Amino acid sequence: MYSITKEFGRLQKSGDFGNYVTEIDQLLETLSKARATIDSAPQSRRELLAIVKNSCSNLVEKTGNIQKDIHGSLSKYSKALDKKFKIDVETAYNRSAFPDSSKILLDRAIAMHLIREGQFSVADSLIQDSSLDIAEAIELEFIDMYRILAALRGRDLRPAIAWAASKRDQLTALGSNLEFSLHSLQFIHYFTMTTDEVTGLPVNGQQMALQYAKENFAPFGERYLGNISKLMCAFLFKSNLEKSPYVDLFLAPTAWDDVARSFTKEFCSLLGLSSESPLYLAAAAGAIALPTLLKVGTIMREKQTEWTSENELPVEIPLPENMFQFHAIFVCPVSKEQTTDENPPMMMPCGHIVAKESLARMSKGNPNQRFKCPYCPNESIPNQAIRVYF
Question: Using CA atoms, how far apart are residues 108 and 102, in angstroms rounded to an integer?
Fold first, then answer.
């Protein structure tokens, strides 16, 4: 990908149309001034036209060179793309995977993606044109979410705190710590404040933080006592916070971005939706897997073989864990296969875990047959094994 990145960088440098527009504007201005001069003094037309012609020739030459540079960079970038992506992706398209009846499902997925991305006007047009049955309440929820996120970007936590307080019971049921995280960040924001954000006048940020803690931390005392203690102990280092044990807590550069991501995740969870758009994840995974799948398809056609696996790919395609790690994965140490709902992980009395099918093979299918653990001297029977949930 280096060659593509290199040519794209060149295109960015030479493809600045600002210089091109500036030269065109200058040319138009020169012609306008010449016309005005000729109108006021027709007798000087011949001399003035000669001067304008020379000036315009230079400007036209400059704009031509700029245009040539842009066209050359664009051409080189296109060639780099063509050289890197020689494979025809149309060969991976399976028309039977998208019958006519599924078009409305695709339209709905696209519309929901647009709503989740905050492109409400575009989503409304698609919903109307495709006659999709998407509840208006869903769009209103995301409009509210983006309103709160806009406030967070402006370092205003009040809308998010109000929302979390109104959803306290639901967030608690999910085991979420969002509401306390928002209050903690508000405390830290006050603690590190030296001037009023509106008036610009000096303020006592530590006093504001202390008052905020008195008014808001009481409901969280039982569950978050340790966290509250850390916040309170920071007053001992208020004059030298940069060298205190709490520097990572109070001066974290990603604190606001982290709480925004946490808010988005919890907001979507209460709607029964994932924090990431399913359409985006599917497209991203497909883009990563496409070269490998195309290569597998070519080999299968050349060797005239068939893909016999139903629930798994014939090759391993690693996907970034930060995007595609949705649940715990356990691979049986005996069979080397990933466990599933039909073949779950089972823990023997000794504490070692194997897949259910491996357990059956070791006991020869007899639920009362004693067998030795493959990893320790202990013996057990299949009935003593219990299912493990990660």
Answer: 10
Strand ranges, E, within the chain: 345-347, 353-355, 371-372, 379-380, 386-387
Matching residue, tokens 């109108």 = 39
What is the C-alpha end-to-end distance of the chain, expressed in Å? Answer: 38
Amino acid at 246: Y
**Cα distance between residue 124 and residue 114, in whole Å:** 9
Q: Domain residues of the chain, as ranges?
A: 2-84, 154-270, 278-306, 327-390
Q: Residue 270: which of 83, 72, 384, 138 has the closest Cα?
A: 138
Domain 327-390: CATH superfamily, name plus number? Zinc/RING finger domain, C3HC4 (zinc finger) (3.30.40.10)
Residue 101: pLDDT band with limits 50, 70, 90: low
The model's pLDDT over 44-79, given as tens digits with 9 standing for 90+, comes to: 777 777 777 777 777 777 777 777 777 777 787 777
